Amino acid sequence: MSEVKKSFLIDMDGVLVHGSKPIPGAKKFIETSLDQKRKFLVVTNNALYTTRDLAHLLQLAGLDIPEDNIYTSAVATAEFLDAQLPQGKAFVIGEVGLTEAIHRIGYVQTPMNPDYVVLGETKNYSFDQITIAIRLINDGARFIATNPDLTGPSEQGIIPSTGAMAALIEAATGKSPLYIGKPNPLMMRSALNHLGVHSENSYMIGDNMRTDILAGISAGMETILVLTGMTKENDISNFPYRPKYVFNSIGDINLEDLD
User: Fold this and answer.
1) Which of 72, 86, 96, 131: CA 20 to 30 A from 257?
2) Active site annotation includes 149
3) How many Cβ atoms sit within 10 Å of the Cβ of residue 259?
């Protein structure tokens, strides 16, 4: 058993919650992590909401997770832009989770000669906005997208998400976006830096082999797959990589066994 307590990057949907309902055992896992003063971040591709909004939504589901322990693809995207080109300009398509994160780094959001076109999730994609984005990219703006997810959930069923809209823009411009969110290990590295921890002392806990587990492995982390979301146990053999551990749910993880 190591003297260093392991840190965790934890996916949200399918690991901690299903929609507005907590997954059994999630509350105890979070409370134990906080009690043991373990460093962790809830890392999500969800770019719709601010970290404060997500903390509130999780609280409504019975999970008291501080806002500082939540890290979204919108925040990762803003940090990337700030590192690449401080005080730049961007044309942004997205909800408040993305627009606020980009405002926070001092960016001007404008369709007038932006340095970047930044595409995120929104519940109301506008044909006019997509058209502007296509024209700006054709004129030389660099193309960034928060995450490659093709669809997202809603109460009525699946809805098109960032990856689907990015594919439309790519088809019209011939230019591929840089995706910041999972499975890009860039988001994992940014989250680890945000926590101030090293990959060799950290686990990625997720429910999706294609995003969470691949991102964790690519970032040099140990990985834990839980079977309460996208990937089922008989799916694992379809992939050329494997998680270190597989648990039925986050409630089955004994933290001390991982140190």
Assistant:
1) 72
2) no
3) 14
